[in-house]
Amino acid sequence: MASHLDLEEQEQLAELKHFWKTYGNLISWVLILVLGGYAAWNGWQYWQRNQAAKASALYDEVEKAVLAQDVARVERGMTDMKERFAATQYAHQAALLAARVLVDKNQGEQARAWLAWSADKAPSAAWRDLARVRLAAAVGAAVTRRGAQNPQGRFRARDRTLGRRPARGPPAGQGPGW
Q1: What is residue 53's DSSP assignment?
Q2: pLDDT by residue (tens digit) across 1-60?
Q3: How far apart are CA 52 and CA 56, in angstroms?
Q4: Cα–Cα distance between 49 and 24 in angstroms, integer?
Q5: Cα separation, 31 vs 35, whole angstroms
Q6: What's the pTM value of the predicted model, to 2 decimals?
Q7: Residues 6 or more apart in contact with residue 89 via CB below 8 angstroms
Q8: How far apart (Å, rounded) are the C-alpha atoms in residues 70 and 93?
Q9: pLDDT tens digit string along 113-165?
Q10: Other beta carbons within 10 Å of 106
Q11: Residues 156, 177: Cα–Cα separation, whole Å
Q12: Helical H runs in 106-168?
């Protein structure tokens, strides 16, 4: 009986060897790809968390400078943020904060530059839209401060900033008819 089991085990071992010879290379490569992909994914997640933590610390510095109304520190922090963490949400949120303090300190050109950068490079549509709206408000305020005689001037500047054509009503006398 023992020899019968030995023959059966030998058959199973031969089948296993044949299976491995046929599919072993494929199985090895699939395992290498899956484990490599898993390691790469974990590495990417670690890098993103690390970048977000560093950007958060720099955002805190920009926020402290904004609260202190220290324009030099705000600009220095924003320059660092733009150079090192431009792809993070923190950079664009800091740009909106910096623009607010720069407008308050009558440095509208620099504020518009930060808002334009954020409107162009923000990683999400929501940040781009918010930056575009604030940029349009800053442009409109600048036109108003320059003493535009035409009250529509600031709206035209706003519309150019937002990238849309000015709204036009129906010709005179051709209203809705009520």
Answers
A1: H
A2: 455 668 888 899 999 999 999 999 999 999 999 999 999 999 999 999 999 999 999 999
A3: 6
A4: 37
A5: 6
A6: 0.64
A7: 123, 124, 127
A8: 18
A9: 999 999 998 888 888 889 889 888 887 766 565 555 555 555 555 556 556 55
A10: 10
A11: 28
A12: 108-121, 125-145, 153-162
Q: What is the CA radius of gyration of the chain?
A: 31
At position 109, the amino acid (one-letter code) is: E
Tokens of 44: 């990417």
Sign of the dihedral defined by the CA atoms of residues 99, 103, 104, 107, in that order: positive
Is residue 53 left, alpha or beta, with left meaning phi > 0 and alpha meaning psi from -120 to 50?
A: alpha
CA geometry: angle 124, 52, 81, nearest 5 deg: 80
Q: What's the Cα-to-Cα distance from 127 to each of 6, 19, 178, rounded to whole Å?
A: 71, 55, 41
Residue 59 near residue 81, CB atoms below 8 Å: yes
CB 93 within 8 Å of CB 59: yes
DSSP 87: T
Cβ-contact 88, 122 below 8 angstroms: no
